[in-house]
Input
Amino acid sequence: MKKEKLQQLREDYSKSALDESDILEDPVQQFEKWMEEALKSEVPEPNAMTLSTVDMQQKPHSRVVLLKGIEDGNFIFFTNYASQKGEEMEENPNVALCFLWLELERQVRIEGEAEKLPGEQSLAYFKERPYKSQLGALASNQSAVVPNRAFLEERFKELEGKYAEGEVPKPETWGGYKVKPEVFEFWQGRRSRLHDRIKYEKVGNKWDIKRLSP
Output
């Protein structure tokens, strides 16, 4: 691809604005408001969020996971504890989340600490998952090297036969995390690249709110 093609890409955002007089004092409530608007606008998978972690060599790694709930201000998601991201969060619980809703010209960045959910909460959610999603979690040793696609499909078929009529057991290494936010940034695209950026930062028990230059 020619460099010029990328340089010529332009979008002039104009759908909305974000003013200090319009935002809520609690960033979690502000996020929930924006999420509701994303749901009503039928944004594809509005709960998809980029999760960034840091390894022991201080190298960052990012991937997309799905937000599965907000409880007591904490952001909930589930994954494999033995995966690369699981191992990195075990060593360094500081993480970043990023939601991008292009249809609304919006982005939300969140920084905070990740902590494992209680085992019973992870088990309860696992039991609510679709049958084949349960099998997929059991079949995959996430992030481990496999010889080929056929290896995974054969493993899945074996488990499908083994648990055709019974309850699928939750893998010991599968479970949930909660991210306790310490920083939020709400971004609203505006014309001429003069975007709106509102930052919330936790100071004690209160949220300090600032406008940032785009």
Observations:
- The two ends are 29 Å apart (CA to CA).
- Strands lie at 48-54, 60-66, 69-71, 74-80, 94-101, 106-116, 174-188, 196-203, 206-212.
